[in-house]
Design a protein that fits this description.
Elements (H helix, E strand, L loop, with lengths): L5 H6 L6 H6 L5 H16 L2 E13 L25 H13 L4 E6 L8 H9 L5 H15 L2 E5 L5 H7 L5 E3 L24 H13 L4 E7 L5 H18 L2 E8 L16 H14 L5 E3 L9 H7 L3 E5 L16 H10 L3 E4 L5 H5 L9 H12 L2
Parallel strand pairs: 1-2, 1-8, 1-9, 2-3, 3-4, 4-5, 5-6, 6-7
Helix pairs in contact: 3-10, 4-6, 8-9, 9-10, 10-11
Amino acid sequence: MSATSPILERASIEPLDDDAAHQLGGLPTDALCEAARARRDRTWGATLTYSPKVFLPITNLCRNRCDYCSFRRSPGDPGEWTMSPDEIRSWLHRARDQGCVEALFCLGDTPETGFREYRELLRSWGHERTVDYLRWAAEEALAVGLLPHTNAGILSRDDMSFLRPVNVSLGLMLENVSERLCEKGMPHHRAPDKRPAKRIQMTREAGELRIPFTSGLLIGIGETVGERLDTILEIRRLHRAYGHIGEVIVQNFRSHPDTPMGLASEPSSEALAATVALARLILDDDVSVQAPPNLNPASIATLLGAGINDFGGISPVSPDYINPQHPWPYLDRLREACDAAGFRLQPRLPVYPAHLETPGFIDATLRPRVDQLHLELATP
């Protein structure tokens, strides 16, 4: 390794303590990426993974108003939707026919607490709560041969227990631990569910319930490098306590028209690469580091060079409803980029081997379906 920093030499071999990790933030990006590649290559080898998924946005109704979000709606807004049972069934069957293994259920935060119209719609379908509808949808996914992963915003401990038997994993982006981003004039000021304490509590309770979990951070929304480091370190603390975090997403802000941050500057490729490298160097080796390729179509080589080992979910059938102007890359193009960099692109399940192999993380009722799909992916 060309890097001469003793801290980087250590970080390329093993995670650093908190104080040493904070010192990484001031080091050159090229040196960080070199050390991160060494850590990635030693642990994850020359394989880059992705999960073939269908993206099912159950509803875009949301009580939060994040300044950067183009997804959320209120009842009556143009583009507002809630997927019907028939729509969900149709998408699930199309996804299975196209070789998907994951059904990603996503929605706005706690819509029933803010919108009477939504509560009435749920009741017309025989459900009192969003989690009831989500459990039904997950059962439908399992019935057609898909593995559900649910990212439904803030869930209570009881809600997660209720969803656990029908989901192989749950997720919640921590985004950032900075309370400053929730102050007036900042992007989370009108988003009560983005308070860091709430998101940390849910992540901790998922660990106590032994639920495989996805977390992540969002960069470019006004945070400092120190706040990014604090966020990565908090995710590491939670994982070390419970061993439940399978992957951490490093997602870069992309501006959307007609939002309060529509004219805001986006983070540079260098800032993204540095943050990916910091995540790889700080997190433990059993945690996958992921970045979405559709938000960085011109920077696949940069992401690979910064130490990612996973691209997350990629859908052959549904768009990215959160970032609709950024379509998923064609898999053959992504495979070509991986081949050119010396990597093999490989599909995976929406739960990582560490949690499949550790007793207690996968509900016994899910095991037959998990084993079946694992065998399918392993068969050329």
